[in-house]
Write a structure and sequence with these properties.
270 residues; mainly alpha
């Protein structure tokens, strides 16, 4: 029977040693708690989280050399996972998996070749579109049929960052590449409802094409919060429906509508 991992406020780091295979599994569970709460929920910097988590587990209350060595070995394994296999971190630790999944994570970590550049890449270490060798990913120029200016992308970037649509802040250059079909690294979406509603507003004002949901699915430029799974039309459609059916507007809807109003005002006076 699977035991689900609870995600409340993570426990404080302590000085207990993590020895042997059982200690490694407890180490992974402790990492899971802190990673999910600090990086996924609170949207803290991944790089800073890695350094703080590792440094907070360096010293321990142990007197015998065997226990110290086993703890150091497990700590090095965790360090290797965080710094060189961020793809596995996104795959196994970004959702409320069960403890059984830790065994699968450990097996993949031991048997598969490491992605040495993954720690340096943003957005959960996702490779570029070309690196995936995915023939189903569509690469076309201006797939959204969008003709907004760089100034408009600046307005959009400001609003999307305020609404926390993506896991990392975006800038006008990134958005220009996104709508132009030249984005090299996919964006990891933090809130699908907010993204869907914003694109709905863009379509309503004829700033993008009618089949924008299919374009998102075909181009695979958006990934879910796990950083592994591409966003599809089946994800977007119900998310948009849930927003448009609400009787009262959520605060993020006012932010999104404010973005579109500013764009319209910009083109009115320029």
């Amino acid at each position: 029977m699977k035991r689900e991992v609870f995600f409340g406020t993570p426990p404080e780091c302590n000085a207990r040693p993590y020895c042997g295979k059982d200690g490694l599994m407890l180490f992974l569970e402790h990492l899971h708690h802190h990673y999910y709460y600090e990086v996924i929920v609170k949207n803290h910097s991944y790089d800073l989280f890695v350094e703080q988590f590792l440094s907070s587990h360096k010293h321990l209350d142990a007197t015998d050399a065997t226990c110290k060595n086993e703890h150091a070995r497990n700590l090095n394994s965790i360090s290797f996972l965080l710094k060189r296999r961020r793809d596995l971190v996104g795959k196994y630790l970004s959702t409320s998996n069960s403890r059984d999944d830790y065994d699968n994570l450990w097996t993949e970590l031991k048997t598969e070749a490491p992605e040495t550049e993954v720690y340096k890449r943003p957005f959960f270490g996702q490779p570029s579109m070309d690196d995936r060798n995915d023939v189903t990913a569509l690469t076309v120029s201006n797939p959204f049929e969008c003709h907004l200016s760089n100034d408009a992308f600046g307005i959009i970037a400001e609003g999307l960052n305020i609404a926390k649509v993506f896991m990392r802040p975006v800038n006008p250059c990134t958005l220009a590449q996104l709508f132009g079909g030249t984005l090299q690294l996919p964006l990891v979406v933090q809130n699908t409802r907010r993204l869907s509603y914003f694109f709905h507003l863009l379509r309503r004002e004829n700033y993008i094409c009618r089949n924008w949901q299919k374009v998102i699915e075909d181009t695979r430029m958006f990934y879910k919060r796990d950083g592994i799974t591409p966003l599809t039309a089946k994800d977007i459609s119900p998310a948009l429906y849930s927003v448009t059916c609400e009787k009262e507007k959520a605060p993020f809807q006012n932010v999104m509508e404010g973005i579109v109003k500013r764009i319209k005002k910009y083109y009115l006076f320029n």
